[in-house]
Amino acid sequence: MIAHDAGMSFFFSMIAIMPLALLMGHATEEIALRTSESLGGLLNATFGNAVEIIIASLAIYTAATNADQAETMITVVQASLVGSILGNLLLVLGLSLLWGGINHRKQEFNQKAQSMSGSLLLIAVLAMMIPAAVNIGGGGFDSIVKLSRYAALVLLIIYGLALFFQLKTHAHIFASDESAHHEEPKMTNKDAWTLLILATILVGWMAEILVHSIDSAATELKLPTLFIGVILLPFFGNAAEHFTAVIVAGKDKMDLSLAIAIGSSVQIAVFVAPLMVVLAWLMGVDLSLEFGPLETAATFLSVLVANSILRDGTTNWLEGAMLLACYVILGLSFWMM
Questions:
Q1: What is the pLDDT of residue 223?
Q2: What is the 8-class DSSP label of residue 44?
Q3: How far apart are CA 48 and CA 35, in angstroms?
Q4: How many CB atoms lie within 10 A of CB 337?
Q5: Three-class DSSP labels, 225-268
Q6: 318 or 50: whose pLDDT is higher?
Q7: HSE value, Cβ hemisphere, 13 Å, CA-based, for 115
Q8: What gap in Å lies between CA 94 and CA 88, rounded to an integer?
Q9: For residue 1, what pLDDT is reported?
Q10: Taking a C-beta distance cutoff of 8 angstroms, is the pair 294, 82 a contact?
């Protein structure tokens, strides 16, 4: 009966996160209309990733306070972070390019801005691959954790410098022609922020129920914990990015759409993941950037595919279909694990 209750709690809390994430996405889009597309994309990415931050933080806290669940919680944190990167790079971006391409024969975007995002993703992948290489080479677990912690601090510094570069010293690179896509806000700024804060609080409540029911739900539903973390949690948690990025792509606002989809991946890889490593460090939990061979390979190849597709500054529906095909293949591989 307890297991059954845990399974139902997991299912309904995961479902409940989706409409709350959609409300967060709607609120941040309203706020973004009063800013530049670059800053608007950053806001959408940040609050869209609030779900991942809340889930990962609660899982780390559970690992720190409950030794019996520590291993499962660490797996959930690592899997959800990798899943968020893959989900945004392949699923969200794929849906955006597909829907945008169906509505518009050819779409263009600021290729210089996306080039920087692609470079940041490659740096983050490097920080994941080196601990994995140390592990394969026979390095001890303590060495891997220590290396991950120092690498996390470096990534956080780079993310701070990237924000300064994007918003201050080289903001002109990220500027886009907004006159052709001007859209009036439908909510007041106060109402949008109120909705955003309330939705975030409710997401935190649902995430707490979700985290504490994962272990029992995985057993009852006969699902691999890795599949839950990599596919299910990011799929429902990234509903805000799904909704907003796809909708604005259909309106031919590709700079904003890519700023959300790619920006979310960059933020997870270069900010959220290292932040969780540091948070775990402070709580005495041994969380590393060594996410496993399949997870690391999937992330590396996804970054390469996304960078390859976006390198020419234009997009079409077929490129979106290619990204979705990659996501399906990776989803099957995690299902079979």
A1: 77
A2: H
A3: 17
A4: 12
A5: HHHHHHHHHHHHHCHHHHHHHHHHHHCCCHHHHHHHHHHHHHHH
A6: 318
A7: 9
A8: 9
A9: 40
A10: no
DSSP 75-90: HHHHHHHHHHHHIIII
| Joined tokens for residue 181 | 């896509």
Tokens at residue 281, please? 């460090």
The most confident of the ranges 55-59, 72-76, 120-124, 162-166 is 120-124
Inter-residue long-range contacts of 189-196, CB under 8 Å, 24+ positions, other chains counted: 189/30, 189/31, 189/34, 192/27, 192/28, 192/30, 192/31, 193/27, 193/31, 195/23, 195/26, 195/27, 196/24, 196/27, 196/28, 196/31, 196/47
Instruction: Specify the pTM.
Output: 0.83
* Domains observed in the chain: 2-336 (1.20.1420.30)
Those residues with Cβ within 8 angstroms of residue 81's Cβ, 6 or more apart along the chain or in another chain: 52, 56, 268, 272, 273, 276, 291
314 bridge partner residues: 108
Rounded Cα gap, residues 315 and 155, in angstroms: 30
Eight-state DSSP code of residue 313: S
- Locate tokens 């990204």: which residue? 323
Does residue 272 register a pLDDT over 90? yes
Residue 197, pLDDT score: 85
Non-local (6+) Cβ contacts of 320 within 8 A are 93, 94, 95, 96, 97, 98, 99, 100, 101
Tokens of 319: 């490129």
